């Protein structure tokens, strides 16, 4: 395994030694006046591809002064995360996250505590409702509310960012707190503001500096302090809701995720376990909001931009909607199996935008031998989702938006093992099922009720992402929602 990031300081200063394309990416992404960081890697696909061909699918980078292993390509990721899932199921060292969550929650925890919380959360999200309102019904309700809010734009040019942020956040609120909020509710708007601001800050190079050099966290001013302040607000808000639930809890009639967790706490209180505590409840809810709001919102926003850019694709989706759902009932998940083209479009949106190019760092849980390399316990492992989602053997012309990547010759939907926008293995996103449901129901509901009309010429619609730390986000844009 080679020491990858040592390449960059030399490359910035000795331009004559580099291929022009690599130097162009360095100039565009890093510039000449700051040091490279691992977040730059996801925005430099050509450089990443060249280095992976030189060094192979397993190589080493330096994050600050600490080495980390990079896995590149489907075979290496499958071998590590699926075949060797347990050994690679730890969470990489992230000082900022550790400072906020202190090892609690579902995203940044490890070991037995993580396994217990993950198992409980998956079961609760899967079985929630128990004969009452299912999660699908909650998403359908939110889709109807979103459509009505879009109708209020009166076909005027609008930036969809705010409304597309409210909808997935409200779905999480409905699951966690039992009730959704009006889009003008001040408490809801403040919560959404704190979550969005944290997402933006955590995507910044400064947070990468804090993670790589954690000693700076306590001694320097900076936006990381805003993350701590916002996180404290969110936790305080959640704690208030938890106390309200405690006062009205009926163990025989759980209303939402909080009730289910409180009941589990009571059941486990004599077992001396470390998972079902107030600290873990609050951290887990914070994680569900953090992971389930901005990511789905950004995917929806990017999806509408791609549909604007490709009106032929949009027309085919709407034709399928008219044939299967028609205009007067709400879309449901049972419709998806009869809508192969729409299903392919939703998958292609996620593949094409490559929302999280490098997944949240893993760590190996013991000393292991992997492809003849010895990887010590606790070593951080980075997985390049881009290298799989944009594999040119599985997806010919991967830089082109083409729903045909997920259709066979007969027009039937075609699954792909390479489709892993939610990562894969034991650390796959716990909200994958919910996110897929939201994307299908929100997009079909919008296209059922509206024609999307751009406010600029098609040639001027730019679908290349804005560089935003660990995620790809679309450029700001406006469109008109024309009722049909």
TrEMBL record:
GO terms for cellular component: endoplasmic reticulum membrane. CDD domains: CYP2C-like. InterPro entries: Cyt_P450, Cyt_P450_CS, Cyt_P450_E_grp-I, Cyt_P450_sf, Cytochrome_P450_fam2. It is a peripheral membrane protein. It comes from the Eukaryota. Its EC number is 1.14.14.1. Residues 1-19 form the signal peptide. It is found in: Endoplasmic reticulum membrane; Microsome membrane. One of its GO terms (molecular function) is oxidoreductase activity, acting on paired donors, with incorporation or reduction of molecular oxygen, reduced flavin or flavoprotein as one donor, and incorporation of one atom of oxygen. The keyword Secreted does not apply. Heme binds at residue 429. The keyword Metal-binding applies. PANTHER family: CYTOCHROME P450 2C18, CYTOCHROME P450 508A4-RELATED. Belongs to the cytochrome P450 family. This is unspecific monooxygenase. It comes from Sus scrofa. The gene is CYP2C301.
């Amino acid at each position: 395994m080679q020491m990858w990031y040592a390449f960059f300081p030399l490359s910035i200063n000795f331009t004559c030694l580099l291929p022009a394309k690599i130097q162009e990416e360095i100039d565009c992404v890093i510039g000449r006046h700051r040091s490279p960081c691992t977040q730059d890697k996801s925005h430099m696909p050509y450089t990443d591809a060249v280095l992976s061909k030189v060094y192979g699918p397993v190589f080493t980078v330096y994050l600050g002064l600490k080495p980390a292993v990079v896995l590149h390509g489907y075979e290496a990721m499958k071998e590590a995360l699926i075949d060797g899932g347990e050994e690679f199921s730890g969470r990489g060292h992230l000082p900022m996250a550790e400072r906020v969550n202190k090892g609690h929650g579902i995203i940044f925890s490890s070991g037995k505590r993580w396994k217990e919380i993950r198992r409980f959360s998956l079961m609760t999200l899967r079985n929630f409702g128990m004969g009452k309102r299912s999660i699908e019904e909650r998403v359908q309700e939110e889709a109807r509310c979103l459509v009505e809010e879009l109708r209020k734009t009166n076909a005027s040019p609008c930036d969809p960012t705010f409304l597309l942020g409210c909808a997935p956040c409200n779905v999480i609120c409905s699951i966690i707190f039992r009730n959704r909020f009006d889009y003008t509710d001040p408490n809801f708007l403040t919560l959404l503001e704190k979550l969005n601001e944290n997402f933006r800050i955590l995507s910044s190079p400064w947070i990468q500096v804090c993670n790589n050099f954690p000693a700076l966290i306590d001694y320097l001013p900076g936006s990381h302090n805003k993350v701590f302040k916002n996180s404290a607000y969110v936790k305080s808000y959640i704690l208030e809701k938890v106390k309200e639930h405690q006062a009205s809890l009926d163990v025989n009639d759980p209303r939402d995720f909080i009730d289910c967790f409180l009941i589990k706490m009571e059941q486990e209180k004599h077992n001396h376990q470390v998972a079902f505590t107030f600290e873990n409840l609050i951290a887990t809810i914070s994680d569900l909001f953090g992971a389930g709001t901005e990511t789905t919102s950004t995917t929806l926003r990017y999806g509408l931009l791609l549909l604007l850019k490709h009106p032929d694709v949009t027309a085919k989706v709407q034709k399928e909607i008219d044939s299967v759902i028609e205009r007067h009932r709400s879309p449901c998940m049972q419709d998806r199996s009869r809508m192969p083209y729409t299903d392919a479009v939703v998958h292609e949106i996620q593949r094409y935008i490559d929302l999280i190019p490098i997944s949240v760092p893993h760590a190996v849980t013991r000393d292991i031998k992997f492809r003849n390399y010895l990887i010590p316990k606790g070593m951080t492992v980075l997985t390049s989702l881009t290298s799989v989602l944009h594999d040119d053997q599985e997806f010919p012309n991967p830089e082109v938006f083409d729903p045909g990547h997920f259709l066979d010759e007969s027009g039937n939907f075609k699954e792909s093992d390479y489709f892993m926008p939610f990562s894969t293995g034991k650390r796959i996103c716990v909200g994958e099922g919910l996110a897929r449901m939201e994307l299908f129901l929100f997009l079909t509901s919008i296209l059922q009720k509206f024609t999307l009309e751009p406010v600029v010429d098609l040639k001027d619609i730019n679908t290349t992402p804005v560089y935003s730390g660990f995620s790809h986000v679309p450029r700001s844009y406006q469109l008109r929602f024309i009722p049909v």
